[in-house]
Amino acid sequence: MIRISSQQVFSGGINRLQDLNVGLNKTSEQISTGKRVNRPSDDPVAAARILKLDQELARVDTYQRNAQLADNRLKQEENALASSIDVIQRVRELTVQAGNGSLSQNDRNSIASELKERLDQLATIANTKDASGEYIFSGFQGNQQAFTKNVSGDWVYRGDEGQRVLEIDDGVTVPISDHGKGIFVDVQAAEPTFFAEASSSNTSGARISSGMVVDRAEFDLVYPDDIAISVVDDGAGGLEVQAFNRQTDAPLVVDPPAYTSGGSFEVAGAQVEIFDAAIGDEFTLKTAQKQSAFTSIEKLIYGLENIDKSAPGGQDAYDDLIGNSLTNLDFAQESIIKKQTELGGRMNAVESTQSFLEDSSVYSNEIRSQLQDVDYAEAISNLSFQSFVLQAAQQSFAQVSRLSLFDRL
């Protein structure tokens, strides 16, 4: 005969009720959270797989944000380049208009005035900022304005040649920026030319004009060497301009040598003007086969305002100005269009990567849902059944707990 004490009856009943209550609470938690697995003990195998899927989704989410950032940056650059092409196209139209032989000097001055506005417009585009306030064409120097005017009022590049890249998937990186030097500055020129620059050591604030080549044969004798220019005491109470080949130190003829603020002079086939100079001021004519889009427009403006077509050789110089300017503008457009083509390839790569990441996210979410999400119909049915069983167990325990030998006496 097996003897069952009252303590065993109570202990077994309580344990049974606790087990039923734990199961009921677990089902209730699943319904309230919508998750079948709320802690590793609910399903250790599923919990491990869910953890890996969460890590994968976090990785995909990071790359999706990077891909969206890359897409936004590239689209902004594409819009800026498209706008710059529109500006250069308008400059080209004005250049063709300036080639009309019937125009007066006033007409050419009017064209030059609009060209100045277009030049500033191009500079504004080249100084475009992104959403974070950084200049998109400054390379790594995002806080530095890409193009600024030097002391002579000419636009020069101030950024570096860095190119930012962003990882948009494991092992997949895409450039998200392009420096302005490669797009707007390093542009093939129609013929060897020069860029006039005042020395940073000058203290007088002297300026030098954009200038232009007026004697191609003389200029070619010096090219590709730079031309150094200085303003010195002429020994008679005045100032004069001296020049020499910076590479060979050979002196160059300056015509006329006497310095007058704003007065034109020629050296090695180049014509320029210096303004507000003092003794010891220095300048450089940097010769090059390349010329920035800004300098091409600046020299066009200079020629429209300074070439006297009625002077000997003036008409030929003017025709050369128009022809070279059109060629330079075409080269500038080609440089920008080439970069647009590169951007198109990058944007396609970003778009395809975004599609892949989206598919990966959807697939991983589906698998995680299957492992983690609760089946509400099944859970509610289980909750109803568990509630019924618990209620029955409670009633049964209440009946059993009242049984004793004293009830039979």
Automatic annotation (TrEMBL):
Flagellin N-terminal domain ranges (all copies): 16-140
Compartments reported by the entry: Bacterial flagellum; Secreted
GO cellular component, one term: bacterial-type flagellum hook
Coiled coil: 53-80
Domain Flagellin C-terminal per the UniProt entry, residue ranges: 327-403
Gene3D superfamilies: f41 fragment of flagellin, N-terminal domain
Pfam families listed in its UniProt record: Flagellin_C, Flagellin_N
InterPro entries: Flagell_FlgL, Flagellin, Flagellin_C, Flagellin_N
Superkingdom: Bacteria
Gene Ontology terms for molecular function: structural molecule activity
GO biological process: bacterial-type flagellum-dependent cell motility
Keywords recorded for this protein, A-Z: Bacterial flagellum, Cell projection, Cilium, Coiled coil, Flagellum, Secreted
Family classification: Belongs to the bacterial flagellin family.
Record-given protein name: Flagellar hook-associated protein FlgL
Organism this protein belongs to: Marinobacter lipolyticus SM19
Gene: flgL
